[in-house]
Structures are given as C-alpha cells and as structure tokens.
C-alpha cells in the first residue's frame, strides 16, 4: 500500500533495457513529500534520466510500483500527465513550428484547453500565462519565430515556459540549467522558488551540478542504478565528512600536547589537522594556550561529500 502523505512514492523500481545484462535502475525506493524540493544527484549514466523518464510516463518500467500525485503509473497515465510538468535534458521541440505553437500544442495535448488554430483565438488565461512566462525567461519578443532560428539556450528557455504553462503540482527537472547562461539560470531558479512558495509545487530535480542540490530539502545520491545514500544535504555531509580545524604554531610540540589533553587526535602534515564533530572550533580555541601561526576551519560542502562517496570509488563525473 502506498503512503498517501507522499506525492511521489517509488517502491523497488527496476529498469533493464533489452540486450543489457546491467540494470539501468536497480531496485530503488524513495518518496517525496508534497511541496518538497528533492534532488537526484549522480554522475552521468548513473540512472537519473531513466528514473525520471519512467516517472513521467515516457519510458516503461521493468518492475516495481510508482504512484505520482496519488495516481498509479500504469493505470492512470492521463491523470499523471495533467499533474506534472517536465523539463527534459534533450529538447523535444518541433523545429518547424513557432515558439508559441510549440507551447499551444503542448497545453492542448495535456488537456488544459481546446485547441484553437490561432493564438488570438485562445482563452485569455492561456495568453496571459504565455506572455508572463516568456517575459520571465526573456523570450517574449521571439514567441512567433520558428524554433530552427533559436539558439540552444533559447530552446531551453522555451522548454521551460512550455513545462510551466499549466502550473503543475509536480515539476520534474532533468538537468534543467544545462546550456543556460548564468543570468537565465538564476532567473529560472528564482521563478521556481517563487512557484514553490505561491503554489506549493513539488520539485524533483536531477542534476550533476552539486551547487543546485545544496539547498534542497532532501537529496538521494544514485550511482550504477542504485541509491547509495539519502537524506538532507546536512545529514549527508555529517555522515560522510568530518569537520576539521587546520592549525599550526611555532611550538608544534606544545600545540600537539594540548590538543591530545583535550581528547583530540592531531594529525601531522604540512600543518596539524583535528576533527571536531562534537566540540565547536570556539571551544577548542578558548582552551588553547599555545600561540597559533595558522588557523583555518574546514566546513564540508555537499560537493566534498559527493566526491568522497562517488569519485573516490573510481567514478568519473
């Protein structure tokens, strides 16, 4: 039985492509609460895009159970599609249509509006929403141009407008900022954060940009089709990386003796390093008598944890 509290609930999901001995997705389970910002983090080829394609009904699963917005992935495909927005890694635009026609076909295909052959015949709600989103993403003046004249970055912006047109309950973002310049990247994140506040939108992000996962509510790190760790960014950092103080003194022997008296284990290298998971740096410094020549606090980032977990096991980012 699936837990009603979760807007995304995945149990024992497996995907094996034909003629492949390996599992692209290997018996994974996770859940996402309503309004949560969830990130799937992992190197290329880890299984992120396969998972998101299954969840957004564009790829069949081999086995497992998935419910999205309370609907079963196998039985309720239409209802799931009405509740989700998707920004895919690879653009899925019709190059022979204008930008606005791409948006209109998408909106009508998802059952939001009856199809009308001209923009001016569409309902006011549709027209206003298109103009609002196009302005946010900086493509308002290009809406009636054919897609083939768009740069890669502009196509990405159009995909974003298209996926947000129906104010989805759940927004799936598969490497959404790939190919965007820094200004557009910031504009997109500002808008998504605003959407989350105003509409309680759940955001499901796959990324290998670690800074994008630093501020999420929950993160799962996936590698070789398996989830290797899940938790808040802080829980993952605590679990994988020690906080460290880097110290030195003219009188190294005295400093080491003091640190040992405090029950700390000084490690000698270019400087002296001590881990301090229980005490704070201030506690340690207040008790030291030896004058210091070097003092640095090494606070771990999610990137440190990720590299520690994935790269040190011989993986390539």
Query: What is the CATH C-level name of the largest domain?
Result: Alpha Beta
What name does the CATH topology of the largest domain carry? Answer: Rossmann fold
Output the structural class: alpha/beta
Fraction in helix: 25-40%
Order of helices and strands: EEEHEEHEHHHEHEHEEHEHEEHEH
Distance, first to last CA: 37 Å
Q: Would you count the extended β strands for me?
A: 14
> How much strand content do the residues show?
15-25%
- Tell me the domain tally: 2
Biggest beta-sheet profile: 6 strands, mixed
Strand order of the largest sheet: 6-7-8-3-9-10
Word description of this protein:
With about 325 residues, the chain is an alpha/beta fold. It folds into 2 domains: about 5-235, P-loop containing nucleotide triphosphate hydrolases (Rossmann fold); about 240-300, Alpha-Beta Plaits (2-Layer Sandwich), CATH 3.30.70. About 35% of the residues lie in helices and about 25% in strands. It contains 11 helices and 14 strands. The strands form 3 sheets. It has a 6-stranded mixed sheet with strand order 6-7-8-3-9-10. A hairpin with a 2-residue loop joins strand 9 and strand 10. Helix 3 packs parallel to helix 5 and helix 8 crosses helix 11 (about 300-310). The longest helix has 18 residues, at about 180-200. The protein starts with 5 loop residues before the first strand and ends in an 8-residue tail after the last helix. The mean pLDDT is about 85.
Would you spell out the secondary-structure blueprint of this structure?
Blueprint: E1 6-15, E2 25-33, E3 37-41, H1 48-55, E4 63-68, E5 71-72, H2 77-83, E6 84-87, H3 99-109, H4 124-136, H5 152-164, E7 170-174, H6 182-199, E8 202-207, H7 210-213, E9 218-223, E10 226-231, H8 233-240, E11 244-248, H9 252-261, E12 267-268, E13 272-275, H10 281-287, E14 294-298, H11 302-309
Parallel strand pairs: 3-8, 3-9, 6-7, 7-8
Antiparallel strand pairs: 1-2, 1-4, 4-5, 9-10, 11-13, 11-14, 12-13
Helix pairs in contact: 3-5, 8-11
């Amino acid at each position: 039985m699936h837990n009603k509290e979760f807007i995304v609930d995945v149990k024992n999901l497996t995907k094996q492509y034909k003629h492949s001995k390996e599992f692209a997705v290997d018996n994974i389970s996770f859940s996402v609460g309503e309004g949560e910002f969830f990130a799937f983090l992992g190197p290329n080829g880890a299984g992120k895009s396969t998972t998101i394609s299954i969840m957004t009904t564009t790829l069949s699963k081999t086995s497992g159970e998935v419910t999205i917005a309370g609907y079963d992935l196998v039985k309720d495909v239409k209802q799931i599609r009405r509740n989700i927005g998707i920004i895919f890694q690879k653009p899925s635009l019709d190059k022979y249509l204008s930008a606005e026609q791409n948006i209109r076909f998408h909106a009508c295909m998802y059952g939001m509006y009856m199809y009308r052959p001209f923009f001016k015949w569409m309902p006011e709600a549709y027209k206003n929403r298109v103009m609002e989103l196009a302005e946010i993403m900086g493509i308002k003046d290009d809406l009636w141009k054919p897609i083939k004249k768009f740069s890669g970055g502009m196509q990405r912006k159009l995909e974003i407008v298209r996926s947000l047109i129906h104010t989805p309950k759940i927004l799936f973002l598969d490497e959404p900022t790939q190919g965007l310049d820094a200004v557009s990247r910031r504009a997109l994140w500002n808008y998504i954060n605003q959407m989350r506040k105003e509409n309680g939108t759940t955001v499901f992000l796959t990324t290998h940009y670690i800074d994008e996962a630093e501020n999420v509510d929950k993160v799962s790190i996936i590698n070789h089709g398996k989830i290797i760790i899940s938790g808040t960014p802080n829980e993952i950092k605590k679990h994988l990386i020690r906080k460290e103080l880097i110290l030195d003194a003219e009188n190294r022997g005295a400093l080491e003796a003091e640190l040992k008296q405090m029950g700390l284990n000084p490690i000698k290298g270019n400087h002296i390093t001590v881990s301090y998971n229980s005490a704070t740096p201030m506690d340690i410094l207040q008790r030291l008598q030896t004058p210091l020549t070097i003092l640095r606090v090494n606070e771990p980032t999610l990137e440190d944890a990720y590299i520690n977990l994935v790269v040190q096991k011989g993986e390539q980012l």
